[in-house]
Amino acid sequence: MITGLLAKLPQFFQKIPAWLLFGLLVALSATGYGWLGYDTPRTNFLQLIALFGVLFALYGLVLVWPWSRRYLHAWVGAAVGFRLLLLWAIPNLSDDYARFVWDGRLLAHGFNPYLYLPTSLLNSPVLVQAGLTKELFDGLNSPQYFTVYPPLNQAFFGLAAWFSGQNVWLNIVCLRSFILVAELGTCWLLYAPKYPRRVLIYALNPLVIIELTGNLHFEGIVIFFVLLAFRWLQTRPILSAVALVLAVGTKLLPLLFLPLIVSQLGWRRAVVYCATLGVGTGLLFWPFLSTELFQNMGKSLDLYFQKFEFNGSLYYVARAAGFWYKGYNVIQTLGPALSLLAGLGIVWIGFSKWAGFGQNFQGLMCRALLSLLVYFLAATTVHPWYITTLVALCGFTVFRFPVVWSVLLPLTYAAYAAVPFRENGWFLLLEYATLLLFVALEVSYLSKATWTK
Predict the structure, then answer these.
(1) Is residue 357 predicted with pLDDT exceeding 90?
(2) Is 300 among the domain residues?
(3) Structure pTM?
(4) Looking at residue 89, what DSSP letter applies?
């Protein structure tokens, strides 16, 4: 539907030679990514939103243009090139990388990162022994919380820290290299000879490129392993479980797909699958196991659901009702309650017999997509990079609302331009009203559409 609307471009554009248009679009996009990745602080909202706007306009033009197969392949190469262009950038739209370096240095020097609160190390000999510095500490955005990054993620942090020593820039380049390799794998999994355009939905998406490669978020690795797990689910269930272990070992979010997997496999095969998942995840955590591990991670996860709030939708509506009824922020009860509600919705989606949700691969991806949507709509915190998984999944379905959402998410950076930090309510209303409108339109259109392969 969206593609059909965008495809109605003025006829005179089609008179431009393909090689000239390709070169012009690549040059403009590369300039935009370089400017955004190297010289746009997140406090400069006008520059940031203008560059994102231009990049998304170019992205939309590429998706609807009648390229030959040769140029479609060239665009995949260009997508890789845009990511390589950002290889040497220090993230300027996110400061999460400081915690990656911090945890990595602890692990590289033989310390369990799950046991140490950053604030407790300032006057500790561990600070010097692990090569940590006050400058690095000052860059942490949550020094009062224990780390929540699972063991495979910690392994990436530790390997990068071991290789780079005290060089923060080299550490960042190493971490970004892991994400780049995973992104190449994701593009390979998305590519299909019959539907070569499908890979471009994800590969060229500006939010995906900036948030994963540019801002160094490890959803890029999670996406690769999740798609691999889904690819192997019916034909190689044990290998699929191993792939999901690696996804969960990077971020815990893929555990949301368990109801869907049980529904697809049936209970007997699902028992073996879940046992493999449990054993594999336990082995990843084994080197770090201690009572403090579960206590500390539990505390931080609990705080995530009961204290952090950013770009919420249903939560913000319920929070406003709570203020009106109670007179204060009821996030301590709302966060867990909405999580439980989302969990029930995900179970329903996983086992639903609703028309269009077949047991084939396309139906599987559709259920996975809507499961994540339900989770994010109920979440207290939805950062822009969270949605990149939806963009990857939507390529296998007729749904394109994740693409629309990705266009709107740069608006959330307006909060960083405000002093003090403050979200813009009008932008939130625009974001979620537009998103829900497109979700409603596409769900109603589902019965008339045919699945892509």
Answers:
(1) no
(2) no
(3) 0.93
(4) P
